[in-house]
Amino acid sequence: MTSTPTVPSGRVIAPRAMAGLRRVVGLPGAGVTIAFLVLCVALAFASDYFLTVGNLTVVLRQSVWVAIMGIGMTFVIGMGEIDLSVGAILGISGLAAAIWIQSGVNIYLAVVAALLLGAVIGACNGLLVTILHLPSFVATLGAMSVLRGIIMVITGGVPVYGLRYPEFQFIGQGFIGPFPFPVVILAAVFAVFAYVLYRTPFGRHVLSIGSNAHAARLAGISLTAVRVTVFMISGLLCAIAGVILASRSEAATADAGQGMELDVIAATIIGGTVMTGGKAVLYGTVVGAMLMTTIRNGLNLLGVSPLWQQVVIGAFIIISVAGSMLASRRADGDA
Amino acid sequence: MPSTPSMPVVEMTGIGKSFGGVPVLRNVDLRLDSGTVVGLLGANGAGKSTLIKILSGVYSADSGTISVDGQHLGSASVTEAQRLGIRTVHQELSLVPSLRVYENVYLHAELTKGRRTPFAPLDRETMIRESRHVLRDVLGIEVDVRATVEDLPIATRQLVEIARAVHERAKVLVLDEPTTSLEAREKAQLFQVVRDLRNQGVAVIFISHHLDEVTDLCDRTIVLRDGAVVVDAPTAELSARDMVTAMTGRLVDHQYPKKQVQLGEPVLAVDGLTREPVYRDVSFVLRRGEILGVVGLAGSGKTELIRGLAGSLPAASGSVTRNGSAVRLGSIRQARRLSLIYLPSDRKVAGIFPEHSVAWNTTISALQRIMGRFGLSPARELSTVNAAIDEYGMKVSGPDQVISRLSGGNQQKVMLARSLLGNADVLLLEDPTRGIDVAAKNDVYELITSLVEAGKSVVLVSSEETEVLGMCDQILVMREGRVRANLAAGDTSLPQIRLIAMSSEGDDE
Predict the structure, then answer these.
(1) What is the ipTM of this complex?
(2) The domain containing residue B363 runs over which residues?
(3) Could you tell me the residue range of the domain that residue A264 belongs to?
(4) Closest residue to B365, CB basis, from A195, A207, A219
(5) What is the DSSP string of B447-459?
(6) Are B87 and B78 in contact (CB under 8 A)?
(7) Do A219 and B349 touch (CB under 8 A)?
(8) Quick check: A212 and B364 CB within 8 A?
(9) Burial of A262 (0-12, 13-18, 19+ CB in 10 A)
(10) CA–CA separation, A81 vs A278, rounded Å?
(11) CB-based contact, A204 to chain B, within 8 Å
């Protein structure tokens, strides 16, 4: 820490160390990171198996879908909107890829087409929000239902099986060096969108709209263009997650991604992105996704019934968000 | 002025308050007599707001005592303060916009048929009748009490809020800068109401940045500076200069740092600009280096006109010429591309990004200027913003300071810096000094002056006629959507402008 030999007494060091600590804790996303590390240490003591390479790879892999979709959600929530259709977009893009591949379309073409499909659906969400002025909650709630319905109509509830093509399997199951390919995709997606969010005018425009849309309009920002693009990004990232999931399970099921929108929103909020928009913590979302997977994984290792896991995760969401809001309220102080 | 022997209603003695170790109030005594109006003056940060928040039970004082009608007012409780008859009309109105006027007047005191329980049926007829009585007969305002508050102009909403306090028989009425969004006529109406209330024995605390208002209305004036009372005297014994001196602690020689600038070629000419029903047939020519003032009452169309020029309330007909070529101002982005940049009067609602830094707020309209090799460059942003902080005299702890922590004056400097970085050539300023203290106002005037010296042009819409008289070269006076007079600032006077704005007697033949 900051203790130096010239400081004469512990009484002087302590407040300084405390101030430093407080500054670290006050950093965006620090809460979720600390919680994640504490949980990892605790689980390492509680279970011999937790801290094995095999298990950690499993944890990371299982976080990939929520993390990738969460990156899109971080943009959406940072802009002051919400996207409830992410799970359904994941489902329909994975299904589309599966059907096209099974009907003989070139595998790469099918994957690209599925990604485009996700982006187009996202853009439609954006148009509903901007052109029809629907609240995003309503627009994407409707979209979720429509897409889930279409999935059921197409499949009749019967999964599309047997996607055993090496090129396609590689997406969800392959390795590049020691790294699972989905993790590589996550890293690439994170790098690209961290750059977009923090280092481009577009990223600032997104957060400005979330902070004060009226002021953003007067500052010359095109609200329509930015909003449609953000929903499109969200759709695209869901499609990426959908293709990875279809590849990993070598099938597209009718219920793929069902309920995942809530995990994605939870990861984003736990990660420190403000629900009302304006501030976004991209790495926090990824850590939030890993944290939720780790809780599930850890509870499994400890033999806790899956039925109780929901309770623990729900309680964790409430506690962590309440804690971070309390901290930020204290930081804002009394004006 | 009534000279009836008065009773102290409120006695605050030795009030002290600190926030985070910083003293905001030191040993303040405040005595309020019934049937008097006390003016409370002070620069922003002098402690006015804290003092009245303590009185109205929002904060508790660290030291000192408060008694109301001899009863001791203990720790902070808004309910308790209200029970003792202390009512505050805050600058940010506390009406519920989606409710109707009468529902707001009776908010939290709803009349019911039969017993007063939370689930008893509402007695709408009586509430409507009584609200109408208070508004029309007591306050003299014509307003449909069944109108939804969000559909009313700001000035009317404020009077509705005062109506609520009056209706609840306030003993002490605190008006926190009630005139900032009022025009002369509504101000006169408000003052009449305040005088009536005083004559009925109400004690009024009147907070304002306008010295003429204080002189006009208040029996006694208290000036706070750095959390302490520096003046407490009958208003009649104080000149405006005394008040300013007490507030700032130094002599302010001339309030308007206007400099004569050589006017250049026309940069913006509009002819017959019309958007029914808010403004019609507006024509003027703005030249390089010129400040064009627009004055008029609320509803005269002046704010709509400037929003028309800004592209947010585009004109339906009429022509616009920018630097000699015909253009359209159909959207905000179109106007911005022509370097017409609009600064709204309501910084909180339409100006700042509150949770972001000074740097973010300064550069948001000009991000292409801080692009480096890997996207936005923090180093370039820092140097750009540091330069702006110096140039505009922002009092900030650094580029990282969160903007919502700044005073109104400093926020306005950030807004000006943002416009200029965004290549403003014609600045459209709407009440740029609303709600900011005297010293900061002067800074803003000096900035405007240096901008026109640098060859920019300004359209200044203001509800303060003296500001327009002091700063502008050309003045448009609007009434009922039309320009009634186009005056050279040197050839006119405050009474002439007011006459034109307020009645048809002022019109030319």
Answers:
(1) 0.84
(2) 353-423
(3) 44-315
(4) A219
(5) HHHHHHHTT-EEE
(6) no
(7) no
(8) no
(9) middle
(10) 10
(11) yes
B447 and B388 inside one domain: no
CA distance A50 to A65: 21
Interface probe, candidates B348, B352, B353, B414, chain A, greatest A C-beta count within 10 A: B353
| pLDDT recorded at residue B455 | 92
Is the domain of B183 the same as that of B325?
A: no
- Answer whether B336 sits within 8 Å of A208, measured CB to CB: no
Q: What percent of chain A has pLDDT over 90?
A: 64
**A121-155 pLDDT, tens per residue?**
999 999 999 999 999 999 999 999 999 999 999 99
CA distance A271 to B148: 40
Sheet with B86-89, strands from edge to edge, namely B86-89, B172-176, B203-207, B37-41, B220-225, B228-234
Is B348 within a domain? no
B408 contacts in A (CB within 8 Å)? Answer: none
Name the CA radius of gyration of chain B, rounded.
Answer: 24
Are β-strands B172-176 and B203-207 bridged in parallel, bridged antiparallel, or unpaired?
parallel
Residue A308 counted as domain residue: yes
Closest partner residue to A214 (CB to CB) among B310, B350, B405 is B350
Count up the domains in chain A and report the number.
1
pLDDT (mean) for A245-271: 92
Chain A residues in contact with B418 (beta carbon < 8 A) = 219
Closest residue to A200, CB basis, from B310, B354, B376: B376
Tell me which chain A residues have a C-beta less than 8 angstroms from the C-beta of B344: 218
User: Is residue B367 located within the same domain as residue B243?
Assistant: no
Task: Report the residue from B332, B350, B353 with minimal CB separation from A220.
Answer: B332
CB B399 within 8 A of CB B358: yes
- Reference B264, options B457, B420, B473; nearest CA is B457
Q: Is A197 a member of any domain?
A: yes
Read off the CATH number of the domain in which A280 is found.
Answer: 1.10.3470.10
CB B422 within 8 A of CB B366: yes
Q: Kindly report, residue by residue over A22-41, the tens digit of the pLDDT.
A: 666 667 778 888 888 888 88
* Same domain as B325, residue B306: yes
CB contact under 8 A, B333 and A222: yes
Chain B residues in contact with A214 by the CB 8 A cut-off are 349-350
pLDDT (tens digit per residue) in A72-112: 999 999 999 999 999 999 999 999 999 999 999 999 999 99
DSSP string of B259-292, one letter each residue: ------SEEEEEEEEEETTTEEEEEEEEETT-EE
Sole residue written with tokens 């709803």: B110
DSSP collapsed to 3 states, B466-503: HHHHHHCCEEEEEECCEEEEEEEHHHCCHHHHHHHHHC
Percentages of chain A per state (helix, strand, coil), in multiples of 5:
75, 0, 25
Q: Is B251 a residue whose pLDDT tops 50?
A: no
Please state, in angstroms and rounded to a whole number, the distance separating the CA atoms of residues B154 and B182: 8
Q: How many domains does chain B have?
A: 4
d(C-alpha A196, C-alpha A76), whole Å: 13
Q: Which chain B residues contact residue A200 at CB under 8 A?
A: 375-376
At residue B353, the 3 state secondary structure works out as coil
For A333, the closest chain B residue by CA position comes to B20
Of residues B371, B380, B374, B360, the one with CA closest to residue A192: B374
Is A220 in CB contact (< 8 Å) with chain B?
yes
| Residue B27 to residue B141: CA distance in whole angstroms | 41
Residue B99 exposed, middle or buried by CB count within 10 Å (0-12, 13-18, 19+): middle
Determine what percent of chain B is predicted with pLDDT higher than 70: 93
Cα A301 from Cα A288, distance rounded (Å): 20
Would residue A202 count as lying in a domain?
yes
To the nearest whole Å, the CA of A200 is away from the closest chain B CA by: 5
Nearest residue in chain A measured CA to CA from B337: A220
Rounded mean pLDDT, B332-344: 93
